UniProtKB/TrEMBL annotation, chain A:
Pfam families: WD40. SMART domains: WD40. This is Mitotic checkpoint protein BUB3. Keywords: Repeat, WD repeat. It comes from Orbilia javanica. The keyword Repeat applies. The lineage of its organism: Eukaryota, Fungi, Dikarya, Ascomycota, Pezizomycotina.
UniProtKB/TrEMBL annotation, chain B:
Pfam families: Mad3_BUB1_I, Pkinase. Coiled coil: none annotated. Keywords: Centromere, Chromosome, Kinetochore. Residues 53-213 form the BUB1 N-terminal domain. Residues 500-509 have a biased composition (Acidic residues). One of its GO terms (biological process) is meiotic sister chromatid cohesion, centromeric. Residues 217-241, 379-401, 490-526, 604-639, 670-739 are annotated as: Disordered. It comes from Orbilia javanica. This is Bub1. It comes from the Eukaryota. The keyword Transferase does not apply. It is found in: Chromosome, Centromere, Kinetochore. One of its GO terms (cellular component) is nucleus. Residues 379-399, 694-706 have a biased composition (Basic and acidic residues).
Length: 333, 1167
């Protein structure tokens, strides 16, 4: 059914994010702790062609495409700057803004051409992608861990299990302030492609699916479930869920855990569609291609247990080609 | 009529008279006091009286009033034993009270109640419970006395609301005399009105009663009602006004409490055992029985709480809100779970604080979290501006350079393109390759930016070269010895700049100053490079390779030999050879003979990138700009290097838009070049990244440029030991460890790139036993023995011959005795022979001679059993690291180390003037000439030595060395003669100025201290940046608070040590510290201060600042490089203040010089 293969890379340190280009289904943006931002052609055969590589001055914690043509990218990392890159010229063109701590997450909202960056300094910066300039800055109560945006919504997952939902058009006040449905630290948050809600994952093997609509009826649809647990004797070892990725067309989503397992879920039917075990290390990041055919999976030491070996031997990039109906919800036949 | 009582008698004894509620008869008092003076008679009399009473008591039951004998007995005791009857009174009271506690006829007998009150007052350890007991028994229920006393007691305990209850209760009961009770109540009410009860007081009306009943049981377990304010056992002392009422009875006893009371017999047991805990516990065990119902409830109460345990509640609560999808939980029984993530790290900041992301943890563990990026950015900006400025200045040099490159380039058929003007934003964008000090390339912009630019090329454009001559060498030394130059001075040109750069390097501060980078960092890079070249993945793997192997492999791999050499050379090798300009080959020749000149730090003025990125890139960044001069060695044509700058172009010239390029990482870089140019290929390179040729030159340039500079960067600190260990490749990668652990040390020693055996003065005879120690010990025993133990014939002084007699020492006496390592004074029989040798070495520029000063006739030999090479190693290392820094004088020299199978001898300097401890003791000892009135040293002397200590520690720390065992007995006085002919007493100190000079001029550098015993020294370069040490030995007050509190420490050990030494000088006693009160709120770090107070006329401000800094270094890291220890700047600031003060005050009165002279003479006399 699905075909899984490894992309040979020269990435020498933990991968922090993988994002498929919005314009090309085989072009993957990879950011890494080795202080690089790379554009990799995932279908260049065994050579794993690296199209572009840009060096940053510090480990990059997150990156994403800024725009639909796949030529611009934005990245943030330990050097606290939100960097704007012109991938066609393999260069950084601007530092959009500077946080006072490491930039943990960046996101791009296509509808509003807005680049959002969130940092451990508890601030959120908004930038206009068209002018490459910062438009506003917002202070939040906690360190920001993950950002995700869809339509005009922005979901900010913070420390202390705090989640804010903003309307990007009026950022002065959050639309909603929520406490995470999960008991432990939020690891990542991703919005549903249909804009109805979001999924968040915690470091304690759970994923919660919630909806924006504050109505009681809609809120009653939210749920959470356990995943990424491995039996060890009579004890289940619970792994963090590090990565979530929604399928762009079907709305199903994949979760990647510290156990090196990727699972595919049907959020509507509340069923697990598939499970792909056997990745060599913790799943650090995942991303679906724009056509939903490919799922890029980065596997490396995730530092979940506070340890890492130097150098990191299991620092690998995989692509899983989805079968025709593999990621299709059962309900849709 | 009796004589009037002699009140003076009573007056004299009044402190021994215990007050009785009813007062005492003055006559009886006087009598018993007078009688007490005749102890023997008194004892007999008392015994007789006691016996009479006891007899009476035996028959008391037959009396009409059985209480009467008790009353009289008690009265007699009180009067006779004016100081309180003690055990006798207690026993008697106990018997009296308990005998009748169940007799109805005495329940409302005031006399009986009074006995109780006396007992409670003087002997009850829980008066409230005693009152409660009385209430339960109904004793005194009808007597106002009970209520008054009880209320008074409660009032004294600040339970006024309860006291009021008691009064009311008594009045309601009509306890007689009710009038008096009313009056007391009114008085109480008045007091209450004057001082209304605090809201926090226990005020619940019913509570006192119920609690009192329960409280009694509790007292026996917990001794006291938790609600009660701390009610010391001394509370009985307040008894006179305390016992009043039995409130307990009325609310408590009639209802639930009364039936629950233990049987009288059990109560007896309880009172019986008031003094012994075991008894109380016994009763406690009994008590629950009658209370069964209540107790079960209480025990039951917590049970539901168990249900609140998080594990169980979580899913329950969860499911109430969320529907659990069937897929994850198909009705299976719940299994135990364990969370894989390191929750303790994630939630390391505790509740209420933000948890830490895994990325943050990773960054933290790699030490990337606390980098001051804003400073880097500023620096970057400054650099950029400076660069523009310099660009103009260098236009000419650039042209020349280009010409030359063209020439060379064409020779290798490589095309050199002029890079285009770099856009500003590119210049700003700092790639990681920027880490290193850049080689001075004359043309920042127009030059090829390839990292692997050859050294020769660099040199060709280097305008500030000097000949490698002795004079030049000296000059460079002097540069290094200049005080630290602020980074603002960097703009200045030429050598000065280089020197300041170098200076900073010295300080190991490599974060944000533009050109500075710790050589350690540079070493990292090198290590990385080499590791990459050798394909070794293990951090530690590399360090184990010894130099020769390295060199050999380097040749095979194309790593320049000088690269390796430099790693092992010392800081003074900062030389640039002019000749290299034209003849690159000479470099090799020099190197080959290990005399090669070393480069001054060649600083690229143009494109330096933030050195701090280095840190960010620590360890595993891919493009570390290591000096890439591949293909240099191992190839006969040195000019091959020259091709490297063009390699870039060569790559670009490859067909296709995405011409293959060398990856900029050092790891890949090195092999890459050969693969293209020299048919040496490594599999990794072939698949290397292709660059779009759209890439602007600017970006590329930045990438590649810095490399060569790195190559030229002399490794100032590249002592053999440190070279192979970078911060990333720390030899010991544990976050916490005991640095004195022999295993740790062995590992460090074993990983030295240059083995210990190659150190000068290291004599390895580890295969053979020495057996020399016995003779020495025997001799020492003989000469120290006295009396009849003393042997008639003193054995001749043992001569230790070493190295086949080439070296020999005659042992004179024992001068120090450590636990394992006795130190002997030895005569160096070869002293005269060293001079020539030394001279040779100097001319040869041999690095190992650093710090090895002239040998003396008298030296000290430390005999180490068990064997430890560590002290020798770390002492040498400290000398190497410090180089010609002034503080080197303050470190003991380790001349030789003779290693045998069974023992080892360390030959060190001998200083005859004794230790600071001796000096402190001499000052304190009244018979000594150095004795002062206060018993402590003169303040200016203390400050002088403190400055010396601080300077030394500051220098050691800035170079990553910890002494680890600073104490007064490890500081030797170093008061050397000043002057050309120092040995002539008449001319002694002739050139010693009386005005103190902080820089050591006018002979002041001859006066100071010497630190000995580096046996606990630590080289921080062997450890991770964020390492915390843990001590596994037993700590005491002389150890720093971190150690005592089992917290990790690093530099604190020395700071505390300095504080302790200064403290002992200043106060003449060992240091004691305490936390600053009010400042130790939970969660906040404790702040320590010394216990002793300053003398009024001392420089309290300076001293306090110093102690504050040294005791709490962690609170002063803000201004330091990188915000981490060592607090070098803080220490320097304090030291400078001290120096200023000394300068201003050194000539007052006796003067510092005078004091030092005195000390000198004093210690001489003592010897």
């Amino acid at each position: 059914m699905s075909n899984n293969y490894e992309i040979p890379t020269t990435i020498s340190d933990a991968i922090s994010s993988v994002n498929y280009s919005p314009s090309a289904p085989t072009t993957l943006l990879v950011s890494s702790w080795d202080q690089t931002l790379r554009l990799i052609d995932t279908h260049a055969g065994t050579s794993g062609r690296e199209l572009v590589r840009v060096d940053a001055s510090a480990p990059v914690l997150d990156a994403c495409f800024a725009g639909q043509d796949g030529t611009k990218a934005v990245a943030g990392g330990l050097d606290q700057g939100v960097k704007y890159f012109d991938l066609s010229r393999s260069t950084q063109t601007a530092t959009l803004s500077t946080h006072s701590s490491a930039v943990k997450s960046v996101a791009y909202n296509n509808d509003l051409s807005t680049i959002i960056s969130g940092s451990w300094d508890r601030s959120l910066h908004l930038h206009d992608a068209r002018t490459s300039s910062q438009t506003s800055s917002h202070t939040l109560p906690h360190k920001i861990f993950s950002l995700s945006t869809i339509t005009n919504k922005l979901v900010v997952a913070m420390a202390s299990r705090s989640i804010h939902i903003y309307d990007l058009r009026s950022m002065s006040e959050p639309l909603q302030r929520r406490e995470s449905s999960l008991k432990f630290m939020t690891r990542t948050v991703r919005c549903m492609p249909n804009g109805e809600g979001y999924a968040s994952s915690s470091i304690e093997g759970r994923v919660a699916v919630e909806f924006f609509d504050p109505s009681k009826e809609s809120q009653s649809r939210k749920y959470a479930f356990k995943c990424h647990r491995q039996p060890d004797g009579d004890v289940d070892v619970v792994y963090p869920v590090n990565a979530l990725a929604f399928h762009p067309t079907y709305g199903t989503f994949a979760s990647g855990g510290g156990d090196g397992v990727v699972a595919l879920w049907d959020g509507v039917a509340k069923r697990r569609l598939k499970q792909y075990p056997g990745y060599p290390a913790s799943i650090a990041a995942m991303g679906f291609s724009n056509n939903g055919r490919y799922l890029a999976i980065a596997s490396c030491n995730g530092f979940e247990d506070g340890k890492e070996t130097v150098p990191n031997p299991e620092n690998k990039l995989f692509v899983r080609e989805m079968g025709e109906n593999e990621a299709k919800p059962k309900s849709m036949g | 009529m009796a004589d009037p009582v002699q009140l003076s008698v009573i007056e004299a004894q009044k402190e021994n008279i215990i007050a009785l509620p009813g007062g005492r008869s003055a006559r009886a008092l006087a009598q018993s006091i007078l009688a007490a003076e005749d102890t023997e008679t008194q004892n007999l009399e008392h015994a007789a009286a006691r016996e009479a009473f006891e007899n009476e008591l035996k028959t008391a039951d037959e009396l009409d009033d059985p209480l009467d004998p008790f009353l009289r007995y008690v009265r007699w005791i009180q009067e006779t034993y004016t100081a309180g009857g003690g055990r006798l009174l207690e026993k008697t009271l106990y018997r009296a009270t308990h005998k009748f506690e169940d007799s109805a006829e005495f329940k409302n007998d005031a006399r009986y109640l009074r006995l109780w009150m006396t007992w409670i007052q003087q002997f009850s350890d829980a008066p409230r419970e005693s009152f409660a007991f009385l209430a339960r028994k109904g004793i005194g229920a009808g007597l106002a006395l009970y209520y008054e006393e009880f209320a008074a007691y409660l009032e004294s305990q600040n339970r006024r609301a309860q006291a009021e209850e008691i009064y009311e209760m008594g009045i309601q009961r009509n306890a007689r005399p009710v009038e008096r009770l009313r009056r007391k109540y009114d008085e109480f009410a008045a007091r209450l009105a004057a001082n209304p009860p605090d809201l926090n007081e226990p005020s619940s009306p019913a509570v006192p009663i119920v609690r009192a009943a329960l409280g009694e049981r509790r007292t026996e377990t917990e001794t006291r009602d938790p609600q009660a304010p701390v009610q010391g056992f001394g509370a009985e002392g307040q008894a006179p006004q305390k016992k009043k009422n039995k409130m307990m009875i009325f609310s408590d006893a009639p209802g639930a409490a009364a039936p629950a009371l233990p049987a009288p017999s059990e109560r007896d047991g309880g009172w019986d055992s008031i003094a012994t805990l075991a008894e109380r516990k016994k009763e406690n065990v009994d008590a629950p029985r009658p209370w069964a119902g209540e107790i079960l409830k209480q025990e039951g109460a917590p049970a539901p709480k168990k249900g609140k345990l998080q594990i169980f509640r979580d899913p329950a609560a969860f499911q109430s809100h969320y529907q659990e999808p069937s897929l994850s939980q198909s009705g299976k029984p719940r299994r135990r779970e364990t969370v894989f993530a390191a929750l303790e790290l994630v939630y390391m900041h505790g509740e209420g604080h933000d948890e830490c992301d895994f990325d943050e943890l990773r960054a933290r563990s790699r030490g990337l979290l606390n980098i001051d990026w804003s400073e880097i950015r500023r620096e970057d900006e400054r650099r950029r501006q400076r660069q523009q400025h310099l660009d103009r200045d260098r236009a000419r040099a650039q042209q020349e350079d280009d010409m030359m490159m063209d020439m060379l380039g064409s020779r290798h058929a490589v095309v050199e393109k002029e890079p285009e003007e770099v856009p500003d934003e590119n210049a700003k964008f700092v790639t990681k390759s920027t880490t290193v000090t850049l080689a001075l390339s004359s043309s920042p912009k127009a030059k090829p930016k390839k990292k692997r630019r050859s050294m020769a090329m660099q040199l060709s454009t280097e305008p500030t070269m000097t000949m490698h001559t002795r004079a030049a060498n000296d000059e460079i030394y002097s540069i290094f010895n200049q005080p630290f130059v602020a980074q603002d001075d960097f703009a200045s040109q030429g050598k000065k700049q280089e020197s300041s750069d170098e200076d900073e390097e010295d300080d190991g501060e490599r974060t944000d100053t533009m050109y500075s980078q710790g050589s350690r960092a540079a070493n990292d890079e090198r290590t990385d490079m080499l590791r990459g070249a050798f394909g070794e993945d293990e951090d530690t793997g590399f360090t184990a390779i010894d130099v020769d192997t390295l060199r050999q492999r380097a040749q095979e791999e194309g790593v320049p030999v000088e690269e390796l050499d430099r790693m092992h050379l010392d800081n003074e090798d900062a030389m640039v050879d002019d000749t290299m300009d034209e003849e690159p080959h000479t470099i090799y020749n020099h190197r080959g003979s290990r005399q090669l000149p070393f480069m001054t730090p060649i600083v690229e003025q143009t494109e330096s990138l933030p050195p701090s990125t280095l840190r960010g890139a620590r360890g595993r960044r891919k493009s570390t700009t290591t000096p890439c001069k591949p293909g240099r060695t191992g190839r006969d044509d040195a000019l091959i290097d020259l091709s490297s700058p063009f390699q870039d172009e060569n790559d670009k010239a490859l067909p296709g838009n995405n011409g293959k390029m060398a990856v900029f990482s050092d790891k890949e870089n090195i092999p890459e070049i050969p693969s293209e140019k020299h048919q040496r290929s490594k599999p990794t390179e072939t698949s290397l990244i292709s660059f779009e040729d759209l890439e602007p030159r600017g970006g590329a340039k930045e990438d590649r440029k810095p490399a060569p500079s790195n190559a030229l960067q002399p490794k100032k600190q590249a002592a053999p030991s440190s070279s192979a260990k970078g911060s990333s490749g720390a030899t010991i990668d544990d976050a916490q460890c005991n640095p004195m652990d022999p295993a740790v040390r062995d590992m460090i020693i074993s990983k030295l790139s240059e083995p210990l055996t190659s150190f000068k003065g290291f004599y390895d005879n580890s295969s053979q036993p020495s057996k020399r120690s016995d003779g020495i010990r025997k001799y020492i025993r003989a000469i120290t023995a006295t009396g009849k133990d003393a042997p008639k014939v003193i054995p001749s002084q043992p001569v230790i011959g070493l190295e086949n007699g080439e070296i020999s020492y005659t042992i004179r006496k024992e001068i120090g005795k450590g636990a394992f390592a006795p130190v002997y004074l030895a005569e160096n029989n070869m002293a005269g022979m060293y001079d020539d040798e030394n001279g040779e070495e100097e001319t040869a520029g041999e690095t190992a001679t650093i710090g090895i000063s002239k040998r003396c006739e008298l030296e000290a030999i430390k005999m180490e059993t068990p064997i430890s090479t560590w002290e020798f190693y770390i002492t040498r290392l400290a000398h190497q690291r410090l180089g010609n820094h002034r503080a080197t004088q303050s470190l003991v020299n380790a001349h030789e180390f003779h290693l045998f199978k069974d023992e080892a001898f360390l030959v060190i300097d001998y200083f005859a003037q004794g230790t600071l401890l001796d000096l402190v003791n001499a000052t304190a000892s009244p018979n000594n000439s150095l004795h002062t009135q206060s018993g402590a040293m003169e303040e200016i002397l203390v400050m002088f030595f403190a400055v010396e200590l601080l300077r030394t520690v500051e220098a050691l720390h800035s170079r990553g060395i910890l002494h680890g065992d600073l104490k007064a007995d490890n500081c030797l006085l170093r008061l050397q003669p000043v002057g050309a002919n120092g040995n002539n007493p008449n001319e002694k100190d002739s050139e010693w100025g009386s005005a103190y000079d902080p820089e050591g001029e006018n002979g002041w550098n001859k006066k100071g201290l010497v630190l000995i015993d580096f046996g606990r020294g630590v080289d921080m370069h062997n450890f991770r940046k964020d390492v915390g040490f843990l001590a596994d030995w037993k700590t005491d007050k002389q150890d720093c608070p971190e150690m005592r509190e089992m917290r990790p420490w690093t530099y604190q050990i020395d700071y505390y040590g300095v504080a302790a030494v200064v403290h002992s000088m200043l106060f003449g006693k060992y240091i004691e510290t305490t936390t600053v009160s009010g400042d130790n709120a939970p969660g906040r770090p404790k702040r320590y201060r010394i216990v002793s107070g300053m003398k009024r006329y001392w420089q309290g401000e300076i001293w306090n600042e110093m102690f504050d800094l040294l005791l709490n270094p962690g609170m002063f890291v803000d201004g330091e490089e990188g915000g981490v220890m060592p607090v070098t700047k803080g220490v320097r600031a304090v030291r400078q203040k001290m120096e200023e003060w000394i300068v201003a005050n050194c000539e007052r009165g006796v003067g510092l010089k005078g004091w030092l002279r005195k000390v000198e003479d004093g210690v001489k006399r003592r010897r």
